[in-house]
Specification:
mainly beta, Jelly Rolls, eight-stranded antiparallel beta sheet, three-stranded antiparallel beta sheet, 3 helices, 36% strand, globular
């Protein structure tokens, strides 16, 4: 239960090697509007998981932070991130983008920040429905490279986690003809009072 009354309550909570991961379900009622917008978005094959896999790029589209902060999805994300704040520290967004994966794409394990940074990644699953047989899970690994948590894409599901947790989004299975959209907002940890 979050100590900040404005923070969203998590549906499920995990800890991987002492690092938090929280799941928020049922918060985004208009997920279909986002899916329809993404179906018309201009994706480019420019995103990489880590430097040594740079030859295997995947599809992404960037969202300007100036536009993001005016979207209702950002307010929900901000309220979920509030549960991670601690005395003297908060978080501010520094990047936002959507990935799309389809059957046959190759995605690699990675981390989103260095271990001592304690940045957060907020990951939204943007789909109107998702069948369990379609795969597409996000796998989170512990320090022994064992799967610690596997999360299924669900319409409007939000996962917020410490960016130093190794993870990978698995592509959908051959029987899935629906794009697997994940919308990521990256937050850096900042001392409270250090800026917007």
């Amino acid at each position: 239960m979050p100590s900040n009354p404005a923070a969203l309550a998590a549906s499920r909570e995990f800890e991987i090697d002492g690092r938090p991961l929280r799941v928020f379900d049922g918060q985004l009622g208009n997920v279909g509007d986002y899916v329809q917008g993404l179906a018309r978005a201009a994706f480019t094959r420019t995103e990489i998981a880590r430097p040594e896999t740079a030859e295997y790029k995947h599809w992404a589209t960037e969202i300007k932070l100036e536009a993001l902060v005016h979207q209702p999805i950002f307010e929900l994300t901000r309220r979920a991130v509030l549960a991670f704040t601690s005395t003297g520290f908060g978080y501010r967004p520094y990047r936002a983008y959507t990935n799309v994966a389809s059957y046959g794409d190759m995605l690699f394990t990675h981390t989103d920040c260095l271990p001592d940074q304690h940045d957060l990644t907020a990951l939204w699953y943007l789909c109107e429905r998702w069948d369990l047989e379609w795969g597409g899970e996000t796998m989170f690994y512990d320090s022994q490279d064992e799967v610690a948590v596997a999360l299924t894409p669900k319409p409007g599901r939000l996962v917020v986690f410490d960016g130093a947790i190794k993870h990978v989004g698995r592509p959908p299975s051959r029987i899935c003809y629906t794009p697997r959209y994940t919308f990521a907002i990256k937050f850096e940890r900042v001392a409270i009072g250090s800026g917007p």
